[in-house]
Design goal:
This protein is of the alpha+beta class and 361 residues long. It is built from 11 helices and 12 strands. Strands 1, 5, 6, 7, 8, 9, 11 and 12 form an 8-stranded mixed beta sheet that branches. A two-stranded antiparallel ribbon has the order 2-10. Strand 8 and strand 9 form a beta hairpin.
Length: 361
Amino acid sequence: MKKGLPAKFLLIPGIAILLILITAFGPRFLPNETEYKKDQARLQEVMGNKLAKEPALEVKLPVKGYIIAGGAGYCWVDAAAGIANFYEPDIDFDKFIFFASPTLIMAGRDKNERYGPGLSIMRAFKNFGYLPFRGATTPIHPPQNTAADFEPQNLIYFKNVNEELLFAKKLLSAGIVPVVGLRRDPFEAIEGGVFTSLVGYDQDGVWLNVSPQSERYAPGNKYYLDEPIRYEPRFASYDLLMKYWTGEHQLLWVVKSGERKSEAEVYRENKKNIQEAPANLQKSIEFLKNKGNLLDFTAASQTPEAAVFYRYFQTKGNLALADQYKELAKTYESLRQSKSPDIEVLTTVYPYILKIATLWP
């Protein structure tokens, strides 16, 4: 009978391999005690008096999602807008978009910017007077131009998913609704990651706002100018949540920290952004022409944003500008229906953005 290698011959290369793994991958896969202690101290500083030591046995908060016509891929807006409406009922979907920098076109102007449309759910919350946080089971967080609306000290490291889930339950017990990132829809056979609000839990699983299938998502449908409709959360077992929660177990939440900006102030910011949009749109087009890294590009289609401003300027009696936004929304939907590439979308809508920029009062 053959014998295995002596233990010392296995131990020496084993230690060498372990050291290589620690050096190469340690920051991502091994506990970082210094970072952990720093982040947990930050949580205690900000959340200490808001959370109980133990969560309630079960919680289900009355938070609904939004089915956003013309907005397939807008799950992050669906989740965040529903949470904002739960916190402050006067914040409807259109007001949430209005506060989320919907007219901003980014052009890589600094380390906080990528290229393309700059709508940001976390900027909306900041404008409403909330402080955004991002949790994960790794101390490595996204690049600054991807997480620009998070202060570095509010990127929180949890050692493992059980600790993070317990924290999410404490948030819910305090009436604070987190958003989780999932690798795909846990209920439907739909590929692609989703963001969903985690609105409750019991001993068997969690309640998630994951939008059901709807004809309103179909490109070119008749609903794209309509206000979104609401839907109810669905129940998922803990096994299902763990199966589809992203590898780093992304968790987002916000905490009230100040006063809401006035609508007049936000309007001025939106006006400034739309006036700068044509030049920035050209820079984004050049970025795509030059085959820039797509990780530094956000998106192209903005049907929901155009529809919001169509409704907004209709109520203000500015029908000329409302009609321009209506045509812009229609164009976005037509391009989405034909599955046009991003550069074609941006090039096609450029004349509309140029005209709109001159019409804002």
